[in-house]
Amino acid sequence: MADKSGSTKYHRDIKIQLKTQTDLARDSCSKRPKYHHHQAQQHSRKRKRSLCEILPTLPFNSKPLAKDHFNEYKPIFGLYLDIQKNKIFEELDVKEVKGRWKSFMHKWNRGELSEGWYDPSTKQKAYEKAIIKYSQTVEEVPEIVPKRQNGTDSCSDIESNDGNQSDQSFGPMLPGQEMRSKSRKLGPTIPSIQDIQLIRENAADARIARYNEEKMAQKADLNEQKAILDELIPQSMAGTRERKLEKKRDLNEKRKSFREKSPGTVDIPDSDLLGDRNDFELYQKAKREMERKKNERELRKEAFLRVRVAEREERLRKYREKEEATIGMFKALAKERFG
């Protein structure tokens, strides 16, 4: 009976122990999500606080910039590069434009720019300046724009390189095309980097072609004048002795023209170029005068140094006399007091 009661008690203790461990594990699992949720809330609050601290209030209630605002703020960005960085926007490559736009965007968002850049009137002035600049560029490099008359396209007069004409250049416009043409905004638009680069390339090609044409025209004119001169002055056959003598004669005439005096020249005497005896005497006299002045300077310097040394010795003598008088006074006082 005693063994039975002991085994029952042993089983009861084991059940209590297992139950206690199960309850502890359940409590730990139930508390863990609450801790993580609390930690996530703290991180979110810190992140919101940091964002509020990073983004200050911009002047004129301007909005912060992002990468998508490049086209909208392109004129003021170009004006900023021109004034602050002394850079021309159209001359920069794509990589440098991206880097400078990123730097401008960060400075704008942190409020590090001058207050005038945030003014809406500055943005409007930048737009107007870009429009004027583009209109001037269009006037300098005119484009061929097809004109429509009586519902037909005048582009049909322009032939392609192979002599074939497109069938789409004839006839009236379709309804869809008319709607698209009406929906397009009139007036000048801000040119892109590719447009400006194309304009500059066309201008450079035109300059090169004009230079080549002028050079060819000069060469043709020179050949023509040479041919006329050969007709007027008959020359000997090439390679003959007479032809060699003619070339030698022409060369001697050219050299003779160089040797001859040019009109308006003045003969310079040899005394001015090489000098004479009087110049040598003047040189000796100037040299003696220079040595005399040098000796006078040295004498004055020595006299000045002697005066300085005498003044220094006089000051030292007075200082020693004063010091001896002071020491004698102290000796007399000591003798009176101590005997």
From TrEMBL:
Residues 31-48 have a biased composition (Basic residues). Residues 27-48, 143-188, 239-272 are annotated as: Disordered. Residues 149-169 have a biased composition (Polar residues). It comes from the Eukaryota. Residues 240-262 have a biased composition (Basic and acidic residues). PANTHER family: STYLE CELL-CYCLE INHIBITOR 1. This is Uncharacterized protein. It comes from Uncinula necator.
